[in-house]
């Protein structure tokens, strides 16, 4: 254990991103010793609190309705483009910030399916995040589609060979998560896209668990559609708006079904008949959630400054160190690693498994250690690279070890 | 004019709600002489700015993921119930805060139509807010429904007799706005509901332009479904989340189509197969927009303290005074009142019309006077009762008069 602690110190000393930790809010009354749930809710930046105060006073309070023409009307696409450039590998005009991940997933899936007449199958995996499965189940029931379920090992994820086996000329759409929410498995997006496109299917990726921690190259990978949330590694705040990507070449072809005034070609003409706006603005429906987008400005600045490749490098060190701690401190108590070990298959979090973990959640919280619990027996350790030190991971897993020992 | 100014002073002196004006944020650099656009974007409360700072520091930053079990999971329904009680005349368990008005309108309309098999017509009016029309056009095109358009005078609104003429046994749903966004016409909800129900149709009301300024009695009026926004008279901030009402008796019958994890019976079981939650939770889809709901806490406190009946009483004085100013100061320059004059038909705003109004918008803003412009030739004067003085209305319309004189 002394060795492991010394290693945390050495890793922290050598960490080129260590300085970013000071940019996060740590309230005076902060009782958190080790926050390991950056994969569920990212911490707020000091700049976010300041920016929100300024926004409420100066923009909402001072500019009032003029804010819409000043800049707010452009925020969904400007922030979308910025996100595309900083984290998604997406050229301009393809990303919009809006709604929730669930609603955007619905909109894009409906658009994709309406654009694939004659094809009645959707390929997805049994261990995708619940909302992804539920949304598609709802659409399938309404439209008489067949959902083709690929069974994956919950401790792993989707393999290209499984997709190749299950896909056929009736497949309209494949939907997977880039990083599996449970195991942290990092899918081979480019290869799965290649297989899907060979069969003539469209591809949709849920990026919620990868965006801001794993480099994404939507354009290069040939992704057709993607969605994701901004409240995990992007630190957007609880229930922050989501984002959608629709590849430029599909924008004139695919139409999302919730025709609202903000997706209209000319929102303020208020005329008869919906005419979709060109480009990614047609992904919008209702009034954009401006107030809730304020944090994104600060967060994208920080991510742009740090660089997603540097974030990934630290993330791999953090998850590697987590695996070592698990092996040395926790395995003796029967804790298993329920996810990939190979760096090229690891997302930003590590899942540990042991029957009875649920009972440890309360004492862990009481000790100021906050991992993420997933039924029935999983603890997810998600050390967000920009806000988490190696020492923090050590303190968290040591506390877990101490509880297991009791 | 001296007489009108003296009347403003007298009305302000006698105003029992005058003290609430001091609870709104007025930044040092505030350049606004007269804000007459409360019907488009309500002003922020001082308490909102404080509450947001506290929330970011203590709840998001301090409690982190624990906030979900502390209270956030209940916010959409708790705030919904509170809104129901303070402003909607809705008993508990029927209102949820979520999404945008457009998305909720889509969800409820789809639910209503799926629950009305065999009926293929939807009744709506040509002058409803664009998003209401566009959403229904999209659904109708997909599902082969017939939209039956009632043509209304844009300076008035929907009459019960028009509904009675147009409705029949094929009508599944009628959709109208409680207060017409353009003219400010206040519809007779109870009577239109009676007519619709007699024909066996469901009723949906868009409350965006009435909530927080006109008393609403959803339960007593027999409304089936309703939606509305919280960024106008409820001061929720730009793009604040919306609300939906689904009458208790319909909750086991009507199902909205966007099946997300937060509408599931047990969100964190993450099991196979969507099972809707009981009650109004099934209206939710994605992760609730918690950060964006923070202002609502402060705003509902204020509205509860002031009381919606007192707000309406002041609103009628404000719009009555606006009409007098229009008649005495503006009519000589060819300005017409393009909306109802009778108090029982007036919503919270007054619409003035004159060709060429668009050109006055910039000089009005330059003079610190901010009304709302609606193409082609309308200025909406929307004095929010809790934040607007009679003197402010006087200053605004006097400035308009001066510009017309030039």
From TrEMBL, chains A, B:
Q: What top-tier enzyme class does this entry carry?
A: hydrolase
Q: Which residues carry this modification: N6-(pyridoxal phosphate)lysine?
A: 232
Binding of pyridoxal 5'-phosphate, residues: 101-102, 129-132, 206, 209, 231, 261, 287
Catalyzes what?
Answer: L-kynurenine + H2O = anthranilate + L-alanine + H(+); 3-hydroxy-L-kynurenine + H2O = 3-hydroxyanthranilate + L-alanine + H(+)
For this protein, the parts annotated as crossing the membrane are: none
- Gene3D superfamilies reported in the protein's UniProt record: Aspartate Aminotransferase, domain 1, Type I PLP-dependent aspartate aminotransferase-like (Major domain)
Q: What is its EC number?
A: 3.7.1.3
Q: Which InterPro entries match?
A: Aminotrans_V_dom (IPR000192), Kynureninase (IPR010111), PyrdxlP-dep_Trfase (IPR015424), PyrdxlP-dep_Trfase_major (IPR015421), PyrdxlP-dep_Trfase_small (IPR015422)
Domain Aminotransferase class V: start-end pairs:
133-352
> Pfam families, per this entry?
Aminotran_5 (PF00266)
What is one term from the GO cellular component aspect held by the record? cytoplasm
Instruction: State the superkingdom.
Output: Bacteria
- Keyword Zinc-finger listed: no
Annotated pathway, please?
Cofactor biosynthesis; NAD(+) biosynthesis; quinolinate from L-kynurenine: step 2/3; Amino-acid degradation; L-kynurenine degradation; L-alanine and anthranilate from L-kynurenine: step 1/1
Q: Which GO terms describe its biological process?
A: anthranilate metabolic process; L-kynurenine catabolic process; L-tryptophan catabolic process to kynurenine; NAD+ biosynthetic process; quinolinate biosynthetic process
Cofactor requirements of the protein: pyridoxal 5'-phosphate
One term of GO molecular function:
pyridoxal phosphate binding
Keywords, comma-separated and alphabetical: Hydrolase, Pyridine nucleotide biosynthesis, Pyridoxal phosphate
Q: Quaternary structure?
A: Homodimer.
Its job = Catalyzes the cleavage of L-kynurenine (L-Kyn) and L-3-hydroxykynurenine (L-3OHKyn) into anthranilic acid (AA) and 3-hydroxyanthranilic acid (3-OHAA), respectively.
Give the record's family classification.
Answer: Belongs to the kynureninase family.
Under what name is this protein listed? Kynureninase
Q: Which organism is it from?
A: Paractinoplanes ferrugineus
């Amino acid at each position: 254990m002394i060795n492991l602690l010394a290693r945390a110190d050495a890793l922290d000393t050598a960490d080129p991103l260590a300085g970013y930790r000071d940019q996060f809010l740590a309230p005076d009354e902060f009782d958190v010793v080790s926050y390991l749930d950056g994969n569920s809710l990212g911490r707020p930046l000091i700049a976010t609190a300041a920016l929100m105060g300024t926004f409420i006073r100066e923009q909402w309070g001072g500019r009032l309705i003029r804010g819409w023409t000043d800049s707010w009307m452009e925020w969904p696409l400007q922030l979308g483009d910025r996100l595309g450039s900083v984290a998604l590998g997406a050229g301009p005009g393809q990303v919009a910030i809006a709604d929730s991940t669930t609603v955007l997933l619905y909109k894009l899936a409906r658009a994709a399916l309406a654009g694939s007449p004659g094809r009645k199958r959707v390929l997805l995996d049994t261990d995708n995040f619940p909302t992804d499965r539920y949304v598609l189940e709802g659409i399938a029931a309404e439209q008489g589609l067949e959902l083709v379920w690929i069974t994956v090992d919950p401790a792993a994820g989707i393999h290209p060979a499984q997709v190749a086996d299950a896909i056929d000329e009736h497949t309209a759409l494949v939907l997977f998560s880039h990083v599996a929410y449970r195991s942290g498995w990092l899918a081979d997006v480019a290869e799965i896209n290649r297989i899907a496109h060979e069969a003539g299917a469209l591809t949709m990726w849920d990026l919620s668990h990868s965006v801001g921690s794993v480099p994404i190259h939507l354009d290069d990978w040939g992704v057709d559609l993607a969605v994701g949330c901004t409240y995990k590694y992007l630190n957007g705040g609880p229930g922050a708006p989501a984002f959608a990507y629709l590849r430029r070449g599909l924008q004139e072809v695919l139409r999302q079904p919730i025709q609202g005034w903000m997706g209209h070609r000319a929102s303020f003409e208020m005329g008869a008949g919906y005419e979709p706006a060109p480009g990614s603005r047609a992904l919008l429906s209702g009034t954009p959630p401006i107030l809730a987008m304020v944090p994104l400005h600060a967060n994208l600045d920080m991510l742009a400054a740090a660089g997603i490749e540097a974030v990934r490098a630290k993330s791999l060190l953090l998850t590697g160190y987590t695996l070592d701690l698990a092996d040395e401190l926790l395995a003796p108590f029967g804790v298993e690693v329920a996810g990939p070990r190979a760096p090229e298959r690891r997302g930003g979090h590590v899942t540990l498994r042991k029957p009875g973990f649920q009972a440890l959640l309360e004492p862990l919280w009481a000790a100021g250690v906050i991992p993420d619990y997933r039924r029935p027996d999983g603890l997810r350790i998600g050390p967000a690279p920009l806000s988490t030190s190696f020492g923090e991971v050590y303190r968290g897993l040591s506390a877990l070890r101490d509880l297991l020992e009791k």
